[in-house]
Every structure is written in C-alpha cells, then in structure tokens.
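step=encode ok
step=design start
structure_in=
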C-alpha cells in the first residue's frame, strides 16, 4: 500500500468516526486531530465518560456498550456496519450475506435502529470477526439464555432489557423495536425486536416481543434481524 493511499484511508476513517461522534450529540471542533478523538468519545452523553455506558469504535463508528450484572459487556445498540463481504439492499429471497434498512430504503431513516442482517451475513461476520469486529463476537444461544436467566421470568427480562413499549430498560441494554425483514422481502413486526444468535446450523434468533416476553426461536436464515455483539 502506498503512503498516499494509507493517508487517504486514515482520513476516511477519521471522517467516519467524527460523523458518528457528532450523531451522538457531541460537537467536534474544526481541525480536531486524531489523538483528540478519544477524549471526545468519552464526552458522549451517558457514554464512555462515566455512568451506565462505555463506548467502543467498530467499523469506524462509535457504539455505546453496557456491562451486565454477570460481568459481560455487550453493545447497547444495534449494529450499523456495511461490512465487506455482504450486499446492501438486494431484492427478494437471498442465500448470500446481505443487510437492509428497515422497509428497504437506500437512505438511512430518521428514526434509525441499525441494519437488518440475514443469517448468512451474521454467520459471515462471526467467521471473519478477527478482521471485521476484532475483540467482539456474535452472541451464542447460551449467551442469550444466560442473559435472560439473570431475571426472575421472561416478563422481568423484557422490562429490564428493552427500551420500547412498557419496558423500563433498567439495565441500559436498550433493545429497540427494529422489526425484521422476512425471507420474501416483506418488512414486519416493527412493534417487536429480533436479534441473531448463533447456533448450529446458524438459524436461531432471540425475540424480544411487544407482548413482554423474551424467547429463542428458529427461523430461515434468509430472514433479516438486528445484531448485537458481545465482547470476547
């Protein structure tokens, strides 16, 4: 790689990080240097500077993280990463890694809840985690089962882990009602939240429903849901 192309790559990454910081309500001064960005990240409201949340950069974007009572650290928001190896917004049924905005738009919605990834994209992300999401991984079914088991019942888990409907989000986990894309290309269930979990043959997902329950189910990997990551 030439010096000029490496400089261009760094400048592109810096611009993406600055945009992500400003989208979270922090003003980045004109001409800010790269070594000033960590301090700005720490100043994100309810972010890395203290309180419930921390902050991590993944794919040139700043994400809130939260440590749960069992000591495990998770993303506190859905992934928004158009990683190489996946296709953005293909039509219809697909069995290759792909991701979409809810309702299939090509422009990021005003009320944006992260990308919806099909199961093939989720598995691709996990298989290439060392280069795409270093230090993070997709949660297993056991990770979600253990998370749910921290609470007396499904309803209590829903209330403490979710940030929609009647939930109180006591933990700061902040599951949101991002909906899903079905294998036929229809977008449904905007009142609930589905996130991928990995289990052979890779078609399991954890459903946080608008009816106040949390459960793990199996669906065709051509369906598309949100993704949360857990720290290695």
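sequence_out=
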């Amino acid at each position: 790689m030439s010096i000029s192309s490496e400089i261009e790559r760094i400048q592109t990454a810096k611009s993406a990080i600055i945009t992500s910081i400003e989208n979270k309500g922090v003003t980045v001064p004109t001409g800010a240097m790269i070594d000033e960005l960590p301090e700005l990240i720490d100043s994100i409201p309810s972010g890395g500077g203290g309180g419930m949340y921390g902050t991590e950069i993944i794919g040139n974007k700043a994400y809130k993280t939260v440590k749960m009572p069992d000591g495990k650290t998770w993303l506190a928001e859905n992934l928004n990463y158009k990683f190489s190896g996946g296709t953005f917004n293909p039509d219809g049924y697909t069995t290759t890694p792909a991701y979409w905005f809810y309702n299939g738009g090509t422009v990021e919605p005003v009320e944006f809840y992260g990308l919806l990834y099909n199961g093939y994209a989720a598995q691709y992300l996990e298989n290439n985690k060392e280069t795409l999401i270093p230090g993070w991984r997709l949660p297993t079914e056991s990770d979600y089962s253990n998370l749910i088991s921290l609470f007396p019942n499904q309803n209590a888990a829903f209330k403490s882990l979710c940030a929609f409907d009647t939930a109180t989000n006591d933990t700061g986990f902040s599951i949101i009602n991002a909906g899903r894309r079905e294998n036929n290309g229809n977008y449904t269930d905007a009142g609930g939240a589905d996130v991928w979990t990995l289990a052979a043959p890779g078609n399991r997902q954890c459903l946080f429903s608008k009816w106040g329950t949390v459960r793990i189910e199996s669906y065709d990997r051509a369906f598309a849901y949100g993704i949360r990551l857990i720290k290695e």
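step=design ok
step=annotate ok -> The chain has a mean pLDDT of 84.
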